Every structure is written in structure tokens, then in C-alpha cells.
Amino acid sequence: MAILDNYLRPRMTMQRIIPMVLWPISIMMILQRSIILAVNGDRTDDFAPVYQAALRFLNGQPVYAENLDTVDPHYLYPPSGTLLMAPIATIDPERSRWIFIAASVVALLACAYLLARLFGFGARSWVIPVIVFFFFSTETVAHTLIFTNFNSFVLLGMLAFLLLMRSRHDLWAGVPIGLTLAIKPVLAPLLLLPLLNRQWKILVTAIGIPLVLNIVAWPLVVDSNSFVTRTVPYLGEARDYYNSSIAGNGAYFGVADWLVVLLRVAFVAMAVFSLWFLYRYYRKTDELLWLATSTGVLLVTEFLVGALGQGYYSMLLFPLLMTVFLPGSTMRNWPAWLGVYGCMTFDTYYSEEWRSFGWMLEYNKVTWGWSLLMIAVFCSLLFRYLDMRRDGVASLDGRPDDTLDEGRLTNDGPGGGGGRDSVATVEK
């Protein structure tokens, strides 16, 4: 009977079952998101203004002369970005857009591989199909493809930067983040990380590349001064459409200015404490957890507190989400993942029966998602700190604490078992 059982019930490990289930589903999702949804497009087209700006640049025409008072997507890249994006206008717009979509899909697949590598998983690991499935299930990836935005390449540059930074290839680490900064400076807050980790050489290339490219591009763009006089002031304004930052959300719903300021200050304070705690207790004991979590904290704070935060920026939080595989992760609690749902879900909440309620949920879900994610990370770290103080472990005079060991931080907390780790009882 045992011999017969080998034929009737062949054994398969979960490492084989998970890829077998997720790869065909993921491949079909990739094809549907790229060939159908992305090619179809939507009401928002982020590619068209970039293409038109590149075309004007190649023809020696003004690049920054568009009307910024409309709600249409605007061209906001600096002259260095104009120089780098110019090749897209060497062919017709339709084929150029299709090639850009295809390149974005390839970049996302490369991101899945680099993210797995960053956390120690190989090319044949079951984790990669899980990452790919999760990527293409989210609104952030779907709308990046549908709107044909540059975000996929920003994520690729960020992951290459983190990998090279961890492996101490400092000058090379600055190259990918420097190229993204030359086009879209959304990753600028991450330059704090090599500064804190005393990897000064990263800043040479990270700052030098966009600086040199702007010096080269400045005389080539006929109205480069308009970027400073018109575009930069516009970037500092909190517009009340397609903006999920606190200021943008407040402007759309008519929230009082004092409350907007209070909320922004509160989230900055949460970020300062979180970055301090992560730097003090994790940088030397678990550099990957410090690096990935600090990256998430810096970016969520930028999205919430800055002038512009758009929902598809959430893909830059994938390294923070991936820390769930690490002991001591601030993502090991349900409120954090409720926040992830809010800022990454492809679900819509428009309701025919409850119009006002559905409209409010739809227009607030990204802001609430980022906020809940930030609060969950902050509370997780704050409760650890309070437990350490209670048990006499944390040094309150600011000196290094030799009594604090890695195991007590990354496993069950002081005294073992339970403890407070977030806004709910969670696994440490």
C-alpha cells in the first residue's frame, strides 16, 4: 500500500507548489496589465507631456512653457531629465509609448529579482513568484503602467542603490540613485542613509551625476531658466487634485490650515523618533532591517508631508514591506498591512447606493493607508523603547548601551513573550 501511495500521492514541497500556482497567474496578470490596460490607457497620460517635452527639446523649442493652471499632467522634469528622456521622441509617440511600457515591465521583473536578492533569496526561490504576484496585484504597479509613468525605473534605481550600498560598492551605489535624481528627485531623502552610515563616497556620484547632467543640459534647453522661475515654484505648491499628501488632501476637502500643519508636524515627529531608534539599535545589529525600514520611513514621510504625494509612489515602499521576513520587523502586525491595503489596493469604493461615503473612502484611501502604515511603524518602535525603559535596558543618558543584545530586540522583546509592539498585540 505504501508503494502504491507513492504513485497516487506524489510528494511535492511548498517550494515547488507556490511557484507552480503563482507563475501562470502572475504571467497572465503581467500580460493583462501591460498589453490590455496599459495600451488602452486611461484619463491620465503621464507619457504624453514627457514625449512632447522631449520632442520640443530636440527641435530647439521651449520646454517649460506649458500652462500650469490646468489639471492635465504637466512636464516637471529638470533639464537633466529632459536630456536623458530625449531619445523617446526619436520615433512616433505610439510606438515610443509601447516600448516604454515594455521596458517598464522588464524593469519591474528586474526589481522583483533585486528585491529578493536584497533579502537573501536566490533566483530559484519561491519568493520571487510571490513578489511578482504581489507587484502586479497592486494599484501602484498597475497605474504606473496604465499612466505610463517613470516610477518603475525609480524603483529599479532604488533597489540597485540599496544592494550596492550594502555590499560597500560606494561609488557605484551612487550611480543608480543619481540617475533617478537627474530625472525625478523623489529618492532625495534616501541620501541621508549613506550620510548616517558614513559611506561618504556614495554622495560623490549620487550628487555629482545629476549636477553634471544639469550643467550639460542647461545650455541645450532654450528656456532652462523657466524651470527655476516657473516649474520649481509650482512643485512647491500643494495642488488639490491627484494629490494624496496631507496638504493636498486637506486642500481638496477644505481642512483647516492649522490642522494640516499639526498633522504634518506630527508625522515629522514620528519619523524623527523612528529614524533615531532604528539608527541607534539596529544599524549595527541588523543593517538590512535598518536600511529597509529607514527607507520606508523617509519615503512615507515625504509622501505625506511634502507638497505632492501620488498613490503610485507607493511602489517605493516594497523594501519596507519585504522586511516582514526579518525578525524584529515593524511590519509584523495587522494595522501595518491594513495601511498597505489602503495605499496599494486596486479596489475602488465608488458606490451607487452610498455615493458620499464611497467617494470619501475612494479619495482618502491612499492618505489613510500611508498614515496608518507610518503610525504602525512608529508605535511598534515606540512600544519597544518603552518596554526597554521599563525593564531598565534602554540607556536614557544618550550613551551606547552595552546591555542591549540583538536577540532581545529582534525576537520576543524584553523578558520574552508578548509585550507591546504596535497598536495591537503582535508578533515581535
Could you give the order of the helices and strands? HHHHHHHHHHHHHHHHHHH
Shape: globular
The figure for the number of domains is 2
Helicity range: 55-70%
Parts with pLDDT < 50 across at least 5 consecutive residues: 396-428
Structural class: mainly alpha
Largest sheet: none
Distance between the amino and carboxyl termini:
45 Å
Protein name: Arabinosyltransferase AftC
Keywords: Cell membrane, Membrane, Transferase, Transmembrane, Transmembrane helix
InterPro entries: GT87
Organism: Gordonia rhizosphera NBRC 16068
Notes on the protein architecture:
One of its GO terms (cellular component) is plasma membrane. This protein has helices at 2-8, 14-40, 47-58, 79-85, 93-118, 127-137, 139-146, 151-166, 170-183, 192-196, 201-217, 224-235, 246-253, 257-282, 287-305, 318-322, 334-344, 355-390, 406-410. The chain has 428 residues and is mainly alpha-helical. It folds into two domains: 26-235, no CATH class; 239-428, no CATH class. Residues 396-428 have low confidence and may be disordered.
Can you describe this structure in just a few lines?
This protein is mostly helical and 428 residues long.
